[in-house]
Amino acid sequence: MVNMLEIRKLTIRERSTGKVIIPDSSFDVKKGSCLAIVGESGSGKSLTCRAIMRLNKPGIEQAGDIWLGGENLAKLPEQEMRRRRGRRLCMIMQHGMRAFDPSRAVGVHLIETLAEHFDWSKSEMTGRMKRALESVRLNAPMDVMNAYPHQLSGGMLQRVMIALTLVLEPDVVIADEPTTALDTVSQYEVVEQFIRLRERLGSTMIFISHDLGVVRKIADEVLVMKDGRIVEHGTTGAVFTKAQHDYTRSLVTAKLSLHQHFRQVMGE
Amino acid sequence: MLHVHRVQKSYRKGGMLSREKKQVLHGISFDWMPGECLGVIGESGSGKSTLARLLLGIEKPDGGTVRFDGRNVADRKARLGKISAVFQDYTSSMNPFYTVEKIVLEPLTTRYGRHFNHHGKIDSLLFQVGLDPAYRVKYPHELSGGEAQRVCIARAVAAEPQCIVLDEAISSLDGSVQVQVLDLLKDLRKLYGMGYIFITHDIEAAAYLCDRVMFIREGRLEEMIGVNRLKEVQSPYAQHMLKMVIR
């Protein structure tokens, strides 16, 4: 299978102190597959993904190569990179609230993003956005588009973000803890949406999550990070059943204790 | 005891001058007993965060009352040292210019004055939430999510309140840390005998920690049930919620 993304010797360090946060990390994401990155907070999952998007703060330096379908993103000038973001690489952040411009209605933001990448008429953009919003279970799409970010709950904003991704149809979707802020019901449906998105567009996905239940449902491969290093990389089944590293095992068992308690309560 | 009686809340829809209102809470009533852990389960937009703000007296209900030991929670003296909170968004609930030490001690300095002798208190609080004393001098931006949330919990515990309102407090933490924090909350409960109102969408977490859970939907109380009888829920909504748990 062809690799969509190839990360080679990615090193991330703090500019001011020279402290290495991620030393020499290399991995591939196969075309059309979904790679989940799991690990505790502070393990460098988000930094890695932002490095792929080249969105890390100026205080953070990165070196190494990032190949997106034969093109080295690390060598692209900023202006070219900006054109890739959104159209080819799409990122869904953890906090919906901070991904939107607080001083403008959500719809304005969405239309602006679409206008940046496509030559559609305004009514076409609105129409597509409306259908996408409906598909992520936002039943009053026009109300949502006319609302300001602070008027919507975090879960709703996240679904708006997913709807925007559905319209943008990027090659690679990077989702940074997208289901974390969602409630059980929308989490379930958003995960379904992600699976459907993959089926429809065949897009490659990097899915950062700490929820191993979700990871097991969506991912083909799992990459476990700890303190900036990749400690385990394998197919989802293998990681869940016969983890090589102690750390992976502790992650799996931690979540299991919740599941088991719940099963017990439900009398299963 | 916290007594919530038919609280209602609505927010203005649209602009500042719009008259149109959106009713978020439709007359919710329940009681919380001291030492109890009560789970509040609802979808996003169900009004559970609004309920949290009303319980904490940060906002006032349009109708109905929230009383803590017989006194209205809108009165800050009724809340002082009795009820505290941990929110979901840990970054915005800490002063970015404060160190961890100052953050954790903030409730104590407001209560006992600046010269309150807190030697050892801070270290033991940090220890209880699983952080090293070295964290005292750190600033919020230097903390990871799990660490920041632990600091928030330490701050909530500092005043040794009877009740802590946890509004989606573990939702932004990762799996293993979630379980750690839940275990931490269980331990603190044993240690201090405090109770929680645990607002969440995560039914599994609620079942793990709580004695009783209530389901809210679109601002109405759908069902209230003891955790050990969770499988006997009657309302179709609660049954649906239980089915949606990803296992």
Q: What brief labels describe this structure?
A:
heterodimer; A: 268 residues; alpha/beta; Rossmann fold; 6-stranded mixed beta sheet; 4-stranded antiparallel beta sheet; 11 helices; 10 strands; 44% helix; globular; B: 247 residues; 8 helices; ABC_transporter-like_ATP-bd (chain B)
What does this structure look like?
The complex is a heterodimer of chains A (268) and B (247). With 268 residues, chain A is α/β, with parallel strands linked by helices. Chain A is built from 11 helices and 10 strands. Chain A has one domain: P-loop containing nucleotide triphosphate hydrolases (Rossmann fold, 3-Layer(aba) Sandwich). In chain A, a hairpin with a 2-residue loop joins strand 9 (221-226) and strand 10. In chain A, helix 4 packs across helix 5, helix 5 packs across helix 7 and helix 7 (154-168) runs parallel beside helix 8. The mean pLDDT of chain A is 85. Chain B has 247 residues and is of the alpha/beta class. Chain B has one domain (2-243): 3-Layer(aba) Sandwich (Rossmann fold). Chain B is built from 8 helices and 10 strands. A 6-stranded mixed beta sheet of chain B has the order 6-7-8-3-9-10, with helices on both faces. A 4-stranded antiparallel beta sheet of chain B has the order 2-1-4-5, covered by helices on one side. In chain B, helix 3 (100-112) runs parallel beside helix 5 and helix 4 packs across helix 5 (145-158). At the A-B interface, helix 7, helix 8, helix 9 and helix 11 of A face helix 5, helix 6, helix 7 and helix 8 of B. Chain B: One of its GO terms (biological process) is transmembrane transport.
